[in-house]
Every structure is written in C-alpha cells, then in structure tokens.
C-alpha cells in the first residue's frame, strides 16, 4: 500500500486507540484491557510499515518513540531493561563532540585567517552575530524560567538510576580556572566541552598566525577531520531510533506518560520564545538598519519555508543567497556573511539550547543559580558554533554539555520526542536571522542598494553584475 493511502489509516488507528484507552481508563465504557492494547499495537505496527516506506531517520525516530512508549506502558518490567540501548547511543554521541567541535572551530577561525580579505566587514559581522545570539540566549533563559516547563516531573522511579549534579560550592576563581584546560587529553576524556572549545580557539588563532606553507597542511587536516566527523555523526544517527526507543521505553516504564506533558509545555515555550525573539529583536534591528521590511519578508518567504519543511538550513542556503542579492545586497557580502552566519549566527538554535539545557536541570529537580545557568548556556553557545550542518547537531551538543555538567541524560530523550517540531521552528529562525544579518552588514558597509529591482536572472554572477551597475 502506498504512503498516501497508509498514512490516514495509521492516523485513524491512533485516534481510535487513544479514545478507547481513555474511555477504558475513566471507566466510561467497560472494555477488557486487551482490546485497546490490541488496537494500539495495530496502530504501532501500521506506523512501522509506514516507516519502511518513508525510510527517513526522523520518521523512524518518531516510530521508535511510539514503539518504546507502548512497550513501556504495557511491559514496564521488560522496558526498564532497554535502557542499555539509550546508554549505547549516548556513549557513541559522546565520542563525537570533542573532535567535531575542535575541527569545525579551527576551520571556522583559521579558514578566514586572511584579515586583509575579511577586513572590517568580517569584524562587523562577528560583532553582530555575537550580540544577536546573546539576545536569543537571554530570551530563552527568561522563557524557560518563566514557564518552568521541566518542573514537576515525578522522578521517584528514576532517581536511583541517575547521577545528580554535585552541589559543590565554587568560587569565582574556581569557575574561571575550570574554563581553561591543563591537559587537552584529560579534557577530552572527562568530557569538559568548554575546555576543548578554549583549546580549539587558541589553536586556531595560533594556526592563523603561522606562514601559509605551515598553515595549509594543518588546515587541510582539520577540514578532513571535520568532514569525517560529519559522516561519523551520520552513521551514529542510524542508531538513534534504537537509542530513543529504548530511552522512552525506560522512561515510560519508570514514570508513565507524565513527562510528555512537560515536553509539550516545552514545545509551546520554544514557539513563544522564538516569536518574542522575532518581534522584539529582529524586527527592531531591521527597522533601525532601514531594511525594507515588506520586501525582505517577501524575499525570504521561500527559503524560510524550505528550512521549516526540511529542518535543514543548508537546503535553504542557495535560495536565501539569491533572495538577498535580489533585494540589493552585493554578492561579495552575501558570499561571506551567509556561510559564516551558518556557523556563528544560529539564533534559533542558541535559543533552543538555552531552553533545553535548563529544562534538563528542572526535570532532574536541580535548582541552578543564575550564574550556573549562564555558564551552561554560554558553553552551549560556544560548542554549537560550526556544527549546524550535522543532522541532530543540537542533540549531540546538548547531550555532551549536560554530561559535562554532570546532569542526567534521560530528560534529553524526553525532549527528543518533540524535537522534530522544535527543529522546524528553530531552523526557520536561523535562516531569518542569517538573511537579516547579510542585509544589516550591507547597510553597515554602506553598500545596500535601496529600491533595487532584480532582473530575472538565474546566474548569481550575472545578477551581481547587475547589482553592481545599479549601485554605481
């Protein structure tokens, strides 16, 4: 049966199963437990059949969550044993973070080592990126502390199996010293992500300062390492459905379905925070920079829609670049700012990570001071640089960072249950933020062409020549 025919059947089965389960639970209808359970398993089996047609990792993650939740609900004792699957997946993810962050940061910094070429434009772009992502970070922090979406999770069945954050009193000097590595191998082994980041930044600066004949081989090596780690991540993510299914089976077997309410609350918090970020930060920036708002919105509608539907910023990149050239941004600015922004200007991802990290602490019943929250989200903001192209990059970064802060991993798997819906929104905001960044930098450089009418050209080089002619 084709996907288009099977999908409605699966949806109907899940609705019927949910209704019958609810009616039986509230004793509205006298039904033997086996009837709603049989319909639920039939719905799950149909979803599995649908998964074989789609052959999408994201879809299989959703299917595995359904299977895991059903196993956890119907066979809680056996479901607890499936935690080993999530532990295996977590270990594989932890092996990714250090080489991936190191390679991508070194390439991102040393790869633009020609300061004469980058010039003032590069400095302005980086300042803009850091200011705007900091706003995103604080909006995320404010939103999650306001809604406290992770609070109230019943941890009675799971506390004995998880490590809790050690409440060690640290002085300001201790916190500062903890940022800097004394032995990079030790930092990697202990999962100290921020120390790896600091080492990578200093290494990249040193690499940028050496002669080209010495820099080129090392830069090529780190680029190769980066590409290999991207593929390594792809391979690990094939195990994601098993890890997620095992984690959800364990969580539901221990705590029931209550955590899913908190996940839905987190989803609403994210969408509200992203809307606030767009209205309170990006719109005023566009107005201050005198960006024609209506033209800008019409221009980015297509690439943002692509990003939202595919959850991939890269899929939207070519159309986004064409759209920015089409409203009056010179190609050389688009060519520098847009790709750099994909590493350093992840507004939606930064906001999401700040929400998710504090959600993990709240779900684990750990009260973090504002200073501890800042250190955690600052670490996330740094480690997220350069890995936007990795599937489930936010999961990799989040798992590694909460582990380095000695937080339990099980709340992350609760988040993963709604990650696809969250990913669409944050990816769309990433694209909006990067498009606006190119326009703002062009205005800042005095090269934004007002009232520019793009010719119907398919070739970017021809469009850029037309744009240069209009500017003069």
UniProtKB/TrEMBL annotation:
Q: Which GO terms describe its molecular function?
A: symporter activity
Q: Name one GO cellular component term.
A: plasma membrane
Its main localization is membrane
Transmembrane regions: 96-113, 125-146, 193-211, 232-250, 270-289, 351-375, 395-418
Which topology term describes how it sits in the membrane?
Multi-pass membrane protein
Under InterPro entries, the record lists: Na-dicarboxylate_symporter, Na-dicarboxylate_symporter_CS, Na:dicarbo_symporter_sf
Record keywords, A-Z: Cell membrane, Membrane, Symport, Transmembrane, Transmembrane helix, Transport
Q: Which GO terms describe its biological process?
A: dicarboxylic acid transport
The record's Gene3D superfamilies line, in alphabetical order, gives: Sodium:dicarboxylate symporter (1.10.3860.10)
Q: Under which name does UniProt file this protein?
A: Cation:dicarboxylase symporter family transporter
Q: Which organism is it from?
A: Hymenobacter taeanensis
